[in-house]
Amino acid sequence: LKGPQGILFGKNSIAGAIAIHTADPTNTFEGYVDTYYDPEHQQEEVSGVVSGPVTENLLGRIALNYSKLDDGYFENIYTGSNVVARENKVARSKLTWNATENLDIRLKYEFNQFDYSGRQSNINHAGPGSAFASLVSKDKPASGAQPGYQESNDTRRHGAVLYFDYKLRDYTLTAITSYAGYNATIFSDVMYTGGRNAPILDP
Hints:
Layout: H1 5-9, E1 30-38, E2 43-53, E3 58-69, E4 74-75, E5 82-83, E6 85-98, E7 103-117, E8 152-168, E9 171-187, E10 199-201
Antiparallel strand pairs: 1-2, 2-3, 3-6, 4-5, 6-7, 7-8, 8-9, 9-10
């Protein structure tokens, strides 16, 4: 893609792009709730959507999702416990204002929170010829294997997008303004020494 398209679809997308557009508010009231539960891994998920008219020329839509996994899919062979546990929260709201016959104004706000505990890879044993031989032993497992020093990733993201759509006969002129914020706090034993974790990213 060339020119200003890179702002919308990503820089240097030489093979094209896939654009995913979230659903807009509907002219009639609708809503649903979906639930999921996996007893084997203690996993649960709930999603819900409410959409419809707020006033005569204002439409709204709210989508929520919550998921939690207490018992991960990966086994820590040193401790015998499963990792990675996670908890995710997602919320998205949309408003569409039909300001005039030719002008529509849309506002979207989204918030995401992802919390992970543990990791799916650990060095629990190293043979004599390994570079980790002096760092890893039965009494000193590497990375997040040892109890009390769980690795974690706490990520939060929010963003807002404002659209102006103006109809000009057979064409539509669209102006887009957006804002995004991102914050991540990561605790990781990147040296695989089995020592106390330290934050490596905390903007």
